[in-house]
Write a structure and sequence with these properties.
about 100 residues; mainly alpha; about 70% helix; about 0% strand
Length: about 100
């Protein structure tokens, strides 16, 4: 495996895991009584919260609904498509090898 293959695999895995965690955060917004400081919810909140805080500053909750996880699902999906999608930059680099 060369560096491009490793980057493709690891970046794909990272973006997939982050997308899953942000989707889980969307589901958790439906249950405001969930304490994100307690296990197992802390395992979801810990890696996602640093990304959500700056977005919340730019776009506050609308009607009491926090849309920052939705925005990050879109961002992760966009990065995944641009980098490792069917016409992605890393995918195209792999085809030239």
């Amino acid at each position: 495996m060369d560096l491009v293959n490793i980057a493709n695999w690891s970046l794909g895995l990272l973006l997939a895991v982050m997308t899953f965690l942000f989707i889980f955060r969307i589901v958790l917004t439906w249950y405001p009584q969930v304490e994100l400081n307690r296990l197992p919810w802390k395992l979801i909140a810990l890696p996602t919260e640093p990304f959500l805080i700056p977005v919340r500053r730019l776009i506050p909750p609308i009607g009491g609904v926090d849309i920052s996880p939705i925005i990050w699902v879109g961002i992760c999906t966009l990065f995944r498509e641009i980098l490792i999608g069917q016409q992605g930059l890393i995918t195209m680099a792999l085809q030239t090898h």
